Amino acid sequence: MVVCGLACWRCRWLLPLLLGLAIIMGIIALAGRGWLESESEPYVQQASLWESCTRGEEDLNWSCESLMDYGWGRAAAATYLVGFVILVICFALAVIAFSIEILRFNFVRGIGGLLFVVAAFQIIGLVIYPVKYTEDIPLTGDNMFSWAYGFGWASTVVVIGCAFFFCCLPNWEDEVLGNIKPTYYYSSPERAPYLN
To answer: Membrane-spanning regions, if any (predicted)?
Structure first.
């Protein structure tokens, strides 16, 4: 029977897998048009990280304006995008780090530090966007920050969790590499009369 705890060598691909999941959620956030949407019918407002679209109640065509015309729009997009690029680099470094037999634990801790930088960039972008959007863009009807914006936060939360694990992983170096001898529990015959 093989027992695989949180920090064992056989489970080394869990962290790169979680980083891959964070990348997928980041792609959805970058490409999604659901950063802001109308909460109920008529659906007259819709926005992505890149543009804001509105339409009349009877109109079927969306009229869009680029958020890159605003300084805060460029700042929000740039900070989230820089964080995403560093996340992709961290994913590649994690795959390389866990592919080699002799794991370099200082290297792993460095990936954790970079992931905290990723989280900082993404949080800055995710905070700038709603604050400045609601100040500068006139909103029509009831609106909500929607699914694509949620994927951006989900990616950030996964990155923060992975950053902690990457930074703490060197503390379990012996367990991960299998350098600890197994502990056997033995009871003497006097203590276990039912064994006779």
So the answer is: 12-32, 77-98, 110-131, 151-172
